[in-house]
Structure formats: structure tokens, C-alpha cells
Design a protein that fits this description.
homodimer, globular, alpha/beta, 7-stranded mixed beta sheet, 6-stranded parallel beta sheet
Amino acid sequence: MPRDIPAYSLRSENRQVLLAKRPEGVPQASDFALATSAVPKPGAGEFLLRNIYLSVDPAQRGWASAEANYSAPVPLGGPMRALTIGVVVESQHADYKPGDFLYGWFGWQDYVVATEKQVIHRATQDIPLAGFLALIGIAGTTAYLALTELGRPKPGDTLLVSTAAGSVGSLVGQIGKSLGCRTIGLTGSDDKVERCRARFGYDVAINYKSADLDAEIAKVAPNGVNVFFDNTGGSILDTALRRLAVGARVVQCGTASIGSWNPPPTGPRNEREILTRRLVWSGFIIFDYMAQYATAADELARLFNAGKVTYELDVSDDIATAPGAIAALYAGENNGKKIIYIG
Amino acid sequence: MPRDIPAYSLRSENRQVLLAKRPEGVPQASDFALATSAVPKPGAGEFLLRNIYLSVDPAQRGWASAEANYSAPVPLGGPMRALTIGVVVESQHADYKPGDFLYGWFGWQDYVVATEKQVIHRATQDIPLAGFLALIGIAGTTAYLALTELGRPKPGDTLLVSTAAGSVGSLVGQIGKSLGCRTIGLTGSDDKVERCRARFGYDVAINYKSADLDAEIAKVAPNGVNVFFDNTGGSILDTALRRLAVGARVVQCGTASIGSWNPPPTGPRNEREILTRRLVWSGFIIFDYMAQYATAADELARLFNAGKVTYELDVSDDIATAPGAIAALYAGENNGKKIIYIG
């Protein structure tokens, strides 16, 4: 059962954040509109859920985009697709009862009439309610499953993580450390370097904006990097690839440094690095791994309650901040997992 | 025991092809020199081997290069590093007896005094002697092990192979077919397209020089490619990546289309393809897999004798053609595995 559950009221209206325009590149505040409507009623097999925390995720950029991607674009005029944690308040589905806390596809809105298909995870673990977005949400389960399934770290391995202070990266570093890795984090400010060391236990943290990144990685990983967990792509990736050990694994979990893929930007060719270093470079999307979600959630809760991993929250308490929240995330303005409390 | 063993004489001098200059890019005839010296004598623990067939391999370009690579550069003035098949004629090593046929690192020369370290494979399988270069050499074992270990083809998969008529690619197609794949070969001439279909059993073969490659792959693999076995890199790779199915495996086995990596050429960024298609892109070098060599050799011999795989030879019978042979290989002038008979 979740703990630290904040107050929430049963509002008489449903506030929604609608996708008003198809964004070019990173979604901006002007691409969204706030609207208010009546609280909907669940039909047979449905339930009414009251959202409590809304998640802000880098992947929302892709969901809002019309470009070919790994999920269908959010319809224009509809509520923005988002992960949230909320509570069932009315139900016509036997498996979902008022008072059940659920994590899933409930969108940027106070209320949603939902079906079972929108549920990702029943929030039963004994962790704070916000932890179901920050730790056991798709970011945390991505960190855990991408690192363990694709990165395959061994004790003594050197693990390099880009966006090391971010919602995924901060957990990757801690999970890697708990598995016996030496951890090196890359991040974009001296403040975040300090948080990587002090809060997320990185052995080394580097501000890639001010450092000579190639020289710095060479210095701190003289025998090469065994696992590179990459959330950025671009020039950070190009540099890191050339500092990998033979047989290293590269986990491609995001490409946050690239503003637009249409047309695709160019960069140095990397196929020779793959060949001569015998890399294994894999792409990870959590939705391929839903069968392992519950196991990952239990393990993350265990690591959290054992003091092995922690998370930071960047909480707004105003739904009106949602429209600009994705752009703020891409600008690196958050300190910890970005969520919006809408109690 | 090998069959189809050609005549060989015990010459009184040792002809050698020496690396005279450090090549820039693809080694040219002018980078080598022919020389003649006395036949050497084996010391304790050594044996004298008479080469019969010399192999010409794309990898020799890397071995001759001073660029950072996965093997130490061939010393200037020394015999060119090469794989060969030969016969022991004199021995001071208990495990190697006159009449033993050995495949290994015996260089472009008539005779070599060798140690056990230079032996890759004892040629015991019942296949033609030249087959120990063309089928059970590093090209064939690369084809078998890279495809099965990294490509992981499943029956019904669509397998795309670049340099499909080459020494590796022609075997990859046939092995893939024997494992139940639909095979698509890319090659550089209409003549080779015909050989891919008639000799190597490709379901589809495409001349990438004259076709609209992207449109052609889209047409023949409407559900995407599941395994891409790439020997070329460059623009063929960029096109193929964008026609892969979700979860496809990319085996990087060579980068033959790229003339020089210093400085690295640029191309479209591919990390977004890795992520959204959830690719697994791996580099393969046979020398990591020596423990599996004998098993692969047995399986290749079995497939050959069962009529499931065949090979073609491009045989010169003049050691004086060796200096220009690597350049000819990169120019695509060979029809089948390029070897030199020096009986």
C-alpha cells in the first residue's frame, strides 16, 4: 500500500490540458490549451479515476509528434497523453474498486473514464505515492530493465551514463552501483555534477558542457567503458563510443540532444567502432518489457526501502504549468523527476 | 581427410611477398615486393610448412595498416600476413607430422617455419583442400558464427546481406536459407545478381548500383528486414537500417564501402533508428570465437556435403598476382573466394 498520499479533492469540473497544435520539435506551452469540462461518468466495464500526480516525460515529445515513431500521435484537440498516478473514485469494473491506486495512461487531466487497457501498474508497493512516477514509473522500470537486460553490467564494470541527473539516469547510476559497477555520470551543470555525486552516488561526475569530454573520460576510464547507457545521442555519444572497451554494451534509451530528426542530422560514421570494438548497441523501449514490469517494480521498491536507491522530485502544484513542462524538461531546468500535483 | 589435393613441389627456394610500404587506404601492388630466399629450417618445437593455397582477404587491408585496429600492423619488410592452407614437410613438434594439412597464419610465401600459435585449424574434414580457405576458413566460420550467434535468425525471418556474392556473404545467404530464412542479397553487378540467385540460392538479389535501393528493399521486404548482415557500411547501411523491422539484428562484419576512416567520414545519424526500431547492432570479429571454430567447421562441412551450401573460387596460379590481389578484391573484380595456388 502506498504511503505519503497527499490530499485530493473531488472537484466538480474536469480540468484538461489539450494538445492544440502539432509541435515542431520540442512541444512548447503554446502548443497546448487548458480547458474545463464536466466530470465524465463511467459506463459498463469502465471506472472513473481521479489523477493525483501527473508525470512530465521526455517521451511526450514523441507522442505529440506526427513523425513516424513508436506510438500513434496524440490526436489534436484531445487531452495530452501522459502517465499519471491516481485513485479510482467510481467503478463499473469488478477488478477496480474505489480507493485503488493505479499508474497508467490517464492523461493530463483531473478525471478520466478509463478501461483496463489504460492501467500499467497497480500501485501496491509500500513506497511514497509520488514514487510510483519517480521510481516505479516507466522511467524507473526503464532504468532497471534497460540496464540489466541490455547493459548486462558485471561487478567491476565501468558504467557511463548520460543525463546522469535525470529521471532515468539518476536511477541507472544507483542501480549500477548496487550491482558492483564503477559509475561515471555525464550531466550539464556544476550543480548537477554535485547532485550526481552527493545524491546519486556516482563515483565520478562530469559537466560535459565545460569539460574536454574525451580527455576526461579517457582519464577516469583508462581501461575503457564497459556499459554506456545513453539518453542523449549526438556528440556525447560519438565521443563516448570512442572510449568504449572491447565488447562494451551501448544502451540507446533516448536521443535527447537532437532537436529534430527530419531531416536526420549528420555525424561521424560509427560502424567501424561497432566492428573493431565488437560493441552490442541496442535500443530500449519499456513497452516491449511489460511482462517484466511487476518484477522490476518489486525490485526497485526493495532497493529503495533498503536505502540503495533514492529519487528526487521536481514538483509543481499547478496544472497550468503543464503546457510548458516538456520544454522545461528539454532545457534541463528540472532537478529530479518532474511531476505536477493536482490534488 | 581433405580431398582434391593439387600437386605441390618441394621448391629449393622460398618465394615471399613482402610488405614494402605502409599502404594509404586499400593496399596496392606497389606496396609489396617479391623476394626469394633460402628455405628455412625448423628448430625445436617448430615445423616447416609448404603453403599450397594463399588466401586473399579484405581484412588484410587492416593488417597492413598502421591505423589503430584490432591486430598489430604487419612489420614493414616482412612477409604479408595471410591465411593459407599448407602441408607440414618437416617437423620438430610432436603434434605436427609431415603430411598434416594445416590452416593458419602462414603468410604469403612458399615456406614458413611455424609454431603451434600460427595454427588456426587442423584440416581434417572431408572436403576439397581449397574449401579450407573458401568454406572452413575465417570467411566461412565468420559467416556461420556471426549469423547464428549475433544475427540469431528464426525460420521465416527476412535476411538481408550486403556483398552477397562475396566470400562471406555468399555463405551467409546459403546458411540463412538452410535455417529457413527468406534471403535478399545486395551486390554490385548484374552478373553477380545472377550468381546470387543461381549459385547461392538467394530468393531476391539486387544490384545496388543500378537500383533505387530503398524502394527495392521496401518492395521485396514489405514487413521489414529481421536480420541485416552488413559487410559494407556507408550508404547501403544507412538505407537498410531504415527498412528494418522492430527488433531486427544488425551484424557489422565489415565496412568495405569506406575507403578511409582517418578522418572518419560523416553520414546520417543512426541512433534514432536503433532506439525506435529496438535494434541490436553488434560487431563481429572471428578471433573472439576461436573456441567455437571446430564446431562451426564440422557444421559447414556437413552442410557442404549435404548439398546445402556451396562456394565459388577465383583462383590465380601465380604468386606474382598477390601484390595486386587485395586491391582487386576491393574493386569487386573477383568471382568467388579469391585464392592463389602456389604448388
